[in-house]
Amino acid sequence: MSVDLGMPQGHGLEGVPTADGPQTRKDFSSDQEVRWCPGCGDYAILAAVQGFMPELGLRRENIVFISGIGCAARFPYYLDTYGLHSIHGRAPAIATGIATTRADLSVWVVTGDGDALSIGGNHLIHALRRNVNMTILLFNNRIYGLTKGQYSPTSEPGKVTKSTPFGSIDAPLNPLSLALGAEATFVARTIDSDRKHLTAVLSAAARHRGTSLVEIYQNCPIFNDGAFDAIKDPETRDDAIIPLVHGEPIRFGADGRLGVVRTPGGGVDIVEVDESNAGDVLVHDAHATDATTAFALSRITDGGAVRRAPIGVFRQVERPTYDDLSREQSVLAGEAPSLQALLDGPDAWTVA
Amino acid sequence: MTASKSTEELTRVVIRFAGDSGDGMQLTGDRFTQETADFGNDLSTLPNFPAEIRAPAGTLPGVSSFQIHFADYDILTPGDHPDVLIAMNPAALKANIGDLQAGGTAIVDAHEFTDRNLKRVGYESNPLEDGSLSDYQLHAIDLTGLTVGAVEEFGLSRKDASRAKNMFALGLVSWMFGRPIDGSIAFLGKKFAGAPAIRDANVAALRTGYNYGETTESFAVSYVVKPAVIPSGRYRNITGNTALSYGIVAAGQLSGLQVFLGAYPITPASDILHELSKHKAFGVTTFQAEDEIAGVGAALGASFAGSLGVTTTSGPGLALKGETIGLGVMLELPLVVIDVQRGGPSTGLPTKTEQSDLLQAMNGRNGEAPVPVVAAQSPADCFDAAIEAARIAITYRTPVILLSDGYLANGSEPWSLPDVESLPRIEPGFATADPDTTFLPYARDPQTLARPWAPPGIAGLEHRIGGLEKADGTGDISYDPANHDHMVRLRQAKVDGIAASIPEVEVDDPDGHAKILVIGWGSTYGPIGAGCRRARLAGHRIAQAHLRHLNPFPANLGEVLAAYDRVIVPEMNLGQLRSLLRATYLVDAEGYNAVRGMPFGAAELGQHFIELCIKEGE
């Protein structure tokens, strides 16, 4: 059974050659030993990606995974595609060069909250506003893992870590609010432990033409265990997870007892739903031209401990991609004059 | 009535046009340069402008100038001291008069010498009237008034009309030196095609300036500088930044690779981005990145994907790119990093020239990260230097740093046009899949020690690479101590081995018996050569060598240095090449160093060389 997010079949993979025959998850597993900590959420994401790649049906050699630095950045080593493990925060920039020069590649960036939002924040926002055709998987564990446990730009205020023994005094970033503010055309959130949902979101992201940003809540069992317990614990998760399905009223909780409604101030609020107010429940429109409602939905999750989180596709709109436009200009430039004519220029003279 | 005028023959002339940064002095200089090229003189130019785009009008910081040296023989520098100074206002006069040759000609726009303008730049009295310019031939002319009068019929505002005064000045100087102005008239027709009144006013101002020289009695003499005897062939005038851009376009064509430029605007490198962005038809893609790091990152990504990745910058940007260049060293992918050097440190002197990034280029990365370094020696030479940088990058799968500087970037000279057919091809030699063997991304070519270049898209060559240390051969992550030691040495050996593919350094030592060798790199080529000429003309023996390759050095360099009693290294830094030579060859090289933001003068170096020769009895 798969999860239906109500997303259209996008043309994000147009131009990428498809495989000759069926593929299996094994085709995408490299010979490298996976070296994450036991219990790390990255294992589940890797398994989901390896399992989902055959569904895309692309030629393996036309898939490229690019990462920066951090635990998540080891990801490309474990996939038998082309891969580039680069330097801290720069993966979106490197991917921009790859995507712009090669229309025949499916380009993926794997990053973390420190890599994408701290050292690489500039590259992330510019990739998003340019809308380069790539899928960015942002593993958000709200902590620095590889450097052993400092607070990250998504850690909650007051967090006590090795570098903040008296509690963090930094205000955190909301990755999805940031992405929406940066003119992103595809913004989604999913959870490492919900394989079906994860797969559905990745599928929609890969098929979106443009930069897709997928925030994946990912548990770090060593330095920030339990950060997402509220949305994982069977006791609480029904009231904590807010599934977004395009075209459907946003309802959640046991038997849909809760719902999201608009507030007069332009935001959204959560109310108990009964017959009297069922009609007020917001119907999710991922394709709305105006990003205001998507932004309001992103604000349901505040910077503190995760108590409630919408998951699914917040926003998916069509906008020309940077790489397509760049290639279009190259085509429009037409045939080159001779190199000799370029060098000679209009003012050359001859000395006999 | 036309006065009968005498002409005087000169072998060489240096002219400097100076005015407010809004007065169009660069354009005026460019046009005079083109006229001079059309006439057939050898020439060399040096623009000099402030970092501020429009500093307050009439102030010293706002002065912009353009110097041209032209002659009836081959010249090497834009000249030390102008023979003729055109000053469009008191600030331009004050900033430049000190450089004018004693007895030289100063042409000034008297209209601008008002009490207010004089006071603004600190003149207590009017230098046009107080006798302070008596050492010069002064022509105080109301250039503004004459221009406004000449263009009256075109109905422009007084302000617009007066803006054509630079063309009046161009016309006058063109008459003085017998330059043809037809090319400039055609140029104005094209430039202002959309604004006929402005076009006609500029053409009228140009013609009126020319005729003014011919008819007014204050200019009794015009000068003749005969065309230079230069080797036959086709020529054009070119700046370093344009030549460098064409070199990159050519490298793409010669290798059959798409070119991808990732760049962030920075003075004085931005013109390369501007030029390359015009050449999409040649398979050149340009990407104006969000910062210097993204520029080089995208270029490296493009190289991974099979293009020739190029990034352009100046010193501050090179500092930011260091980590990515180190990644390129580890990934062993082609990457051309162009550093158009300017005065440093920090923001330094953005529009002035310097050679102070050599050690940054050599060493500005963490770890043992050797990178080949190539330097251009003249504006036209930037073309060849760019192709050479690309050849090394592609052949050896390595980042290469190409050093130019502000003087080369904006200076110009005639370029003997290459025949495209004769340019050497560059073979990318992409990896191919072999079903019978496992692909080893870090296997080595036995000759070059280069690894395979395997862009995505080929089945059977899927591989993962990154910044972590590689196991020799497989490219898998390896923390093995012996492997790391081996790989560090291997990367060094690969770069050292490039020496086998570069020409030996040539020494210009006319009779082969000089005891003093002057050795330089980069844009000091012209001034050093001119200085050596002066020393030889004065009867001294001195040898000159110039380095295109700074890393690795040419194979014979140690022998060459050892053959001379004294080795002199003039540099626009505090001795960076000198340090490298001393460290590498244990030679007691002596520096001659200045960091004034301006190229060395020929006279200055000539004097220094002559003193050395006298001391050595040469």
UniProtKB/TrEMBL annotation, chain A:
Annotated GO MF terms: magnesium ion binding; oxidoreductase activity, acting on the aldehyde or oxo group of donors, iron-sulfur protein as acceptor; thiamine pyrophosphate binding
Region (Disordered): 1-27
SUPFAM superfamilies xrefs: Thiamin diphosphate-binding fold (THDP-binding) (SSF52518)
Statement: the UniProt record of this protein carries the keyword Oxidoreductase: yes
UniProt keyword Disulfide bond present: no
Keyword annotations from UniProtKB, A to Z: Oxidoreductase
Pfam family, one: TPP_enzyme_C
GO biological process, one term: cellular respiration
Name of the protein: 2-oxoacid:ferredoxin oxidoreductase subunit beta
Native species: Aeromicrobium ginsengisoli
Sequence ranges assigned to domain Thiamine pyrophosphate enzyme TPP-binding in this UniProt record: 72-216
Coiled coil regions in record: none
TrEMBL record, chain B:
Domain Pyruvate flavodoxin/ferredoxin oxidoreductase pyrimidine binding: residue ranges: 259-471
Pfam family, one: POR
GO biological process: response to oxidative stress
Classification via Gene3D superfamilies: 3.40.50.920, 3.40.50.970, Pyruvate-ferredoxin oxidoreductase, PFOR, domain III
This protein's UniProt keywords: Oxidoreductase
GO MF annotations in UniProt: magnesium ion binding; oxidoreductase activity, acting on the aldehyde or oxo group of donors
Keyword Cell membrane in annotation: no
Record domain Pyruvate/ketoisovalerate oxidoreductase catalytic: where: 22-211
InterPro entries: 2-oxoacid/accept_OxRdtase_asu (IPR022367), Pyruvate:ferred/Flavod_OxRd (IPR050722), Pyrv/ketoisovalerate_OxRed_cat (IPR019752), Pyrv_Fd/Flavodoxin_OxRdtase_N (IPR002880), Pyrv_flavodox_OxRed_cen (IPR002869), THDP-binding (IPR029061), Transketo_C/PFOR_II (IPR009014)
SUPFAM superfamilies: Pyruvate-ferredoxin oxidoreductase, PFOR, domain III, Thiamin diphosphate-binding fold (THDP-binding), TK C-terminal domain-like
Record NCBIfam families: OAFO_sf
PANTHER family tied to this protein: 2-OXOGLUTARATE OXIDOREDUCTASE SUBUNIT KORA, PYRUVATE-FLAVODOXIN OXIDOREDUCTASE-RELATED
Protein name: 2-oxoacid:acceptor oxidoreductase subunit alpha
Protein species of origin: Aeromicrobium ginsengisoli
